[in-house]
Amino acid sequence: PRSCILAAVASCLLGIQGAVSLRSTPTKAATKTTMTNLASSTITNRRQWLASSFGIATAASSIASANADPSIVSKLQSPLQDAIAPGHWIGQFIGINSKQETWDFPNDTPSEVSKAIVGVLEGLTDDRRAKLCMPELDIATANDQRVHVLTWTKLEWLDALDVQLKGSNSNNDVDGCVAEVKFYATGFLPTNIPGAPLLNIAMAWFPFGSPGPR
To answer: 159 near 81, Cβ under 8 Å?
Structure first.
C-alpha cells in the first residue's frame, strides 16, 4: 500500500511556512471524519484485488512493467480520469480513499500561499517523492484561487491534490487565506490500463481502500 500523500500536503504546508515567512502557524480549522477502521475488514485494497484477480491478468502484467514516469497511455487518459474521478464519487462520503482538511493562514494572501505550494512541490527531491509514493507529478493549475496537482504512483495509480484558496475576508487583496485541501484517489484501476477511465466508471460503486489519503 502506498504511503500517505497527505504527508506531502503537510510537507507543503510546512514548506509554505518557511517560503512565505508565515507569521503564525497554520491552524487546522476542520477535518472531515474518516472511516479508517473499515479498511482492514470490509474494504478491499485495490492492489490486493488486482494481484489476486486472474480476470485482469493482462492488467497486472501491464502494471508490473510500469516505471516512475507515466506511460503514454497514462498521459493520454489521465486528464479525462482526473475530470471525472469516479473513485472519488463514493469515497468522498465515507472517507476510505480521500481526505479533506481546511487550513487557515491569517497573515498571507491566496496568491502567496499558491506560489509557496508550487515552490514546495517543485522543490521535492526524487528521494522525497519516492518516499511519498508520488514519483511523478504535474501541476495542472496554479493561481490565486486554486492549485490542482496530478500525482502518479510508481504503478501509475492517479491521485489528485486539490487546494481551493480564498481570502479570509472574501477579498483576495487582503491578508488572510483559507485553504480547502483535498487529496483523493481518482479510480480503482491505474491509468496505464487502456480504457481505465471508462472501466473505473463501471467500478465506481466498488469501495476500495486507499491508505494514503487516510
So the answer is: no
- The C-alpha atoms of residue 193 and residue 188 are separated, in whole angstroms, by 11
Angle between helices 6-19 and 110-122 (to 10 degrees): 120
Beta carbons of 47 and 152 less than 8 angstroms apart: no
pLDDT value at position 45? 57
86, containing H or E segment: none
Determine the average pLDDT of the residues in 112-124: 94
d(CA 161, CA 167): 20
| Residue 201, C-alpha cell as written in the block | 466508471
Neighbours of 76 (CB within 10 A): 12
Q: How confident is the model at residue 69 (pLDDT cuts 50, 70, 90)?
A: confident
Each residue's pLDDT tens digit, 14-23: 444 444 433 3
Please report which confidence band the pLDDT of residue 96 belongs to, taking 50, 70 and 90 as the band edges. confident
* DSSP track, 127-194: HHHHHTT-SEEEEEEESSSEEEEEEE-TT--EEEEEEEEEETTS-TTSS-EEEEEEEEE--SS-TTST
Measure the CA–CA gap between 123 and 116, rounded to whole angstroms: 10
d(CA 142, CA 163): 9
